[in-house]
Amino acid sequence: MIIDHIGMVVKSLQKGLEHWENVFEYRKMTEIVINSRQKVRVVFLYKENSLTVKLIEPLDEASSVYKFAMKGGGLHHICFKCNDMDKEIKRLNKMGLRLLVPPQPGEAFENEDIAFIYAKHGLNIELIETDTKAEKIINK
């Protein structure tokens, strides 16, 4: 597995974008995408020679990240790209990690499957098998 991106929860994508652009000099890499299953809006950010960042804004109170965002947000997950998601889930499960969201299409990845696992110590892991991202504005 290799790290694909980190996911940061924000109250507002617009304010989050401004912050990451001004403070860390990241640029918007993709269009904003609505993930209807997770009830969030997301956008990927890019900076040369650095990790990709995904900003995550809850759509409403039904979003699983709503309360976290209202408390100020922050690091939500580390996303790892793997070659075989089902095999990786089984391997991590055997190690005591818990599947939170089974593989399902992710709109931010043009409906390629994503899964979420709780990796202990407050860390959520997102698993993907693709390099595909939402409609790109700039190519990494």
SSE map:
Blueprint: E1 2-9, H1 13-24, E2 27-28, E3 33-35, E4 40-46, E5 52-58, H2 66-70, E6 74-81, H3 85-94, E7 98-106, E8 112-118, E9 124-128
Parallel strand pairs: 1-5, 6-9
Antiparallel strand pairs: 1-6, 2-4, 3-4, 4-5, 7-8, 8-9
Description:
This protein has 3 helices and 9 strands. The chain has 140 residues and is of the alpha+beta class. It has a single domain (2-128), classed as 2,3-Dihydroxybiphenyl 1,2-Dioxygenase, domain 1, CATH 3.10.180.10. Strands 1, 2, 3, 4, 5, 6, 7, 8 and 9 form a 9-stranded mixed β-sheet that branches. A hairpin with a 5-residue loop joins strand 8 and strand 9. The protein starts with a strand and ends in a 12-residue tail after the last strand. The model has no long low-confidence stretch (mean pLDDT 90).
Query: What percent strand?
Result: 35-45%
Structural class: alpha+beta
What is the CATH homology-level superfamily?
A: 2,3-Dihydroxybiphenyl 1,2-Dioxygenase, domain 1
Number of strands: 9
Oligomer: single chain
The parts where pLDDT drops under 50 for at least 5 residues are none
User: Helix share of residues?
Assistant: 10-25%
Instruction: Examine the secondary-structure arrangement and name the CATH architecture.
Output: Roll
Reading the helices and strands in chain order gives: EHEEEEHEHEEE
